[in-house]
Amino acid sequence: MNVPPSRALALAIEPFAGQVYFSPECHQGYAALGFGPSPGKAGEVEMPDGPAYFCSRGSVMGQVPGAVIAAAFGVFDPAAVIPAVNYGWTLTDAQTICAARTDGAVQQLRRILGAAPEGLDRAVELLHRATERLSLAGNPLFSGLVAQGLPGGPLADAWRLADQLREYRGDVHVNAWTTAGFDAVEIGLITELYWGVPPRSYVRTRAWSDGDLDAAEQRLQSRGLVRDGAFTDSGRTAREAVEVTTDDGCAPIIAALGDDLDELLRIVGGWSAQIQAAGGYPAGPQDLAALVNTGRE
After folding, report:
1. In the chain, which stretches have pLDDT less than 50?
2. What confidence score (pLDDT) does residue 294 get?
3. Within a domain: 296
4. Which of 47, 207, 216, 226 could lock onto 77 through a cystine, CB 3.0 to 4.6 A?
């Protein structure tokens, strides 16, 4: 099965960009600000403290309230996000934790990849091209990262640009599933089916209660999208349509890269493989689901 180009790019950059959430150096930096340490591991990967995660990722938008962070992230229960952010902002401010986020991410990359991994200058060039003309409208996390500017130094810049691409697709995806008529609990449940992970496993990392999940499952069944814990044909079609809409929203990235897409996939995909092999990023959502199921969330 051929993977659409924008999905192939998202898969290639995910561990390179997303390792910031599992970096021991980040966790140590946040703990120095008063946040809790990593609550446990999934395999060899250190999981993030909840308040530190919400505040650090949300900090790219500035010192915003928890409701704004919950809205931008989209998939988490606001009842968990808002108090976590309120608590986090008693410990630090957005500028300070944002700096710790960048420092910790780059430190882990240097530890795993070295200061100048193969293809770095070319990757920065291509990532610049991929991001420079993307729209800010409707894309809050991407826009926040753009407003931060580049940290300086090729490896740090490559990471920031990859993070921009990651959040751009995330923003587009939230817009896609909300426009398609799903709420956050519903999209979490049908995404588990789409990924093939055990039901009510990964979605629990988003802090939804059993009552929330029961009600959302009933809504999906009443719409004919799920039956007996499995997709109906219309449910699978509806979930794939969300991904296609997301791909369409990311088309400017693929157009900007043109014939150089494969080169970027090779360079950054190679880095991502090294990061996963070193325990810097989970193997997949199954790892996070297993963490919840063992009670170590």
Report:
1. 289-297
2. 29
3. no
4. 207
Give, to the nearest 10 degrees, the angle between helix 261-277 and helix 120-131.
Answer: 120
User: Which residues have C-beta within 8 Å of that of residue 253, sequence separation ≥ 6?
Assistant: 6, 9, 130, 131, 134, 165, 168
pLDDT value for 287: 57
Q: Which residues touch 237 (CB under 8 Å, ≥6 apart)?
A: none
- 258 CB-contact burial (10 Å; exposed 0-12 / middle 13-18 / buried 19+): exposed
- Name the maximum alpha-carbon separation found in the chain: 54
Asked if residue 290 belongs to a domain, the reply is no
What SS3 state is found at 45? Answer: strand
Q: What is the pLDDT of residue 284?
A: 74
Residue 232 in any domain: the answer is yes
CA count, 13 A, side-chain hemisphere, 57 = 29
How high is the pLDDT of residue 24? 99
**Burial class of residue 195 in the structure, from the number of CB atoms within 10 Å of its CB (0-12 exposed, 13-18 middle, 19+ buried):** middle
45-46 and 226-227 strand pairing: unpaired
Residues facing 231 on adjacent strands: 226
User: What tokens were used for 262?
Assistant: 């494969």
Closest CA to 161 of 138, 145, 137: 145
**Residue 277 maps to a domain:** yes
Domain around 57: 5-285
The pTM (predicted TM-score) of the whole model is 0.95
Could you tell me which residues come within 8 angstroms of residue 94 by beta carbon, excluding any fewer than 6 positions away?
Answer: 55, 58, 59, 61, 62, 63, 64
Count of domains forming the chain: 1
Report pLDDT digits (tens) over 156-205.
999 999 999 999 999 999 999 999 999 999 999 999 999 999 999 999 99
